[in-house]
Amino acid sequence: MPNDDNFRIGYVADVEGHWDYFLEYVQRSNVLFWEEHEDHNNNLSSSATNSFGITFKRLKLRPNTYFVYGGDSVDKGPGDIRLCRALVDLKKNYPDRVHLLVGNRDLNKIRFSSELSDEDMKRPIEDIKRPFWDPNAKSYKEHLEEIKESHVATDSYTLDDLNTKAERLRWMLKHTLGCPDTFEFRREEIAYLEKIYGSYPPTCDTHESSPVPTTVIYHTNDVDVDTTKVTDEDVVNSFDHEINHPEGSLRQYLHHASIACILGNTIFVHGAIDRLTMRFVPSKQSIFDLPKSPPPSFAAPSTDITDGIMIDNVYEWVHSLNEYLRDGLKDFESRPHWNEERTSRGGEALLAIQNRPSMWGRSVVCNSYADGGVVATEDAEEQRKQALRVAEEELNPLAFEGIASNVFDQEPADWLLAHGIKRIVVGHKPTGDCPAVLSSAYIGVEVCSVDTSFARRRDISTGEKSNRFGANRGDAISLVEIAGSDCNYNRLEISGMLADGTEYSSTYPHIGSNEDSESGGSILGKKTVDGWWVKAVASDKYHLCRGKGRTVEYDIRSEEDVVICRQLLMR
Questions:
Q1: How far is CA 33 from CA 10, 403, 457, 494, in A?
Q2: CA dihedral in degrees (161, 167, 169, 172; nearest 10)?
Q3: How many angstroms separate the CA atoms of 407 and 436, rounded?
Q4: Which span out of 55-59, 212-216, 443-447 was modeled with the highest average pLDDT?
Q5: Is 130 exposed, middle or buried (0-12, 13-18, 19+ CB in 10 A)?
Q6: Overall pTM surpassing 0.90 (yes/no)
Q7: Which residues, 6+ apart, have CB-to-CB distance to 209 below 8 Å?
């Protein structure tokens, strides 16, 4: 870490249970590191490595640094439990310097408590509909019929025979939560945890006769494990344990997390701060369904709303959002199952805030800037305008699914600037093989969108390493840090490896400086005259992107070949 920086924030989001990705992130980090586990006498334990060659280490934070995890800790790899445990342990050890945010993938798991309960399993199969926010998804009955048709061994089975908790969970993961591989990922992780600690769920806080807390979990996925011994019932019980048991990894993560946090001149949320989400705090009686309340004014947010409150002070807004999370968790814990009429359950408000239709498009957790690997495209602008028209004219909240927020909107930027906030950092929606940034030269606020969970480029071949971090991530990894003299005067630094194996390092101008006076960094985060965005610099070459939806194009240019579109620069 550079000696002249007295302040540094490390940030990562959307790891989604990919443990090897997180290990690589920590190895590159200037903020986090692993420390060997110590025994009760504070000496290095002779059992820091167990009989299987597994090394026990603990995640630590360097001096003068802060760390923010931007949400979405689970679902896409065999490391959900280990990642949550490591992050929560870090938060407990550095409560004022570590901030964990909730993403939609973290919050939506509280559905398991009610929808996989013994009582809910008695419901007629026909009553379990497709998710209200996705008319193209399969209903549970359609899912079971598909299984029956595709497996010869189930020919003699009825749909009721196939209606098990394991199959209900598989349907939820695949057709309502967007993670079809998660069931088998959890089977794999259970096998790892049993080998690491001797049992799962842990029956005590030690491994064999050595003091190895379950939070000490440095371990790669290259140890052979036998997943055949892990039953479907084990997998179902694991999902139940991790969200419902007070010491469950995801339950603990939610307990120590926030919806938003502010560190100096930077605000962090999982989704987006736009014209719809700014100032808005939903009602704690919000429900996870299509809203019954009338739509708000989409053109100009008003204090005259019936489904929440509007708060002018950004710090009070953040505080109220985080109180909303805490109250929602208390509600969930007090009544995790449906009532007798199946009209109410604890935690509904938390499920609502991670669903854009439930919020009339005002979800600070799920709104997003990203489209086509960048933070703004003409196609996204047209889709947003159309969605607003449909929502208002047809009273259809489903219009908000999949649209991107307007990163150029000056109104939310001015609101943040009035409170000294000059940077927004988010995750949630993929931005190609490196983070997408909007230079502060446009609206006075720098916007950094960091999710690289769909980074693999299928237009190139990188050889045997191309699946290093999975079929979607490929080889790409990003390190986002904010460094400077203090929390209010600092710069954005982004480094890592692109999908083609190129190492890159991009340093943005200090917030508040004259960007055009800086060589190189002055064109990062800006749009060219021919519609490309400058995203990264490597070996004096600039890496550019443009796209539409999840289709991303890439280009490489020298600095003299990059011509910035000046008419968009507002400041």
A1: 11, 37, 30, 18
A2: -100
A3: 12
A4: 443-447
A5: middle
A6: yes
A7: none
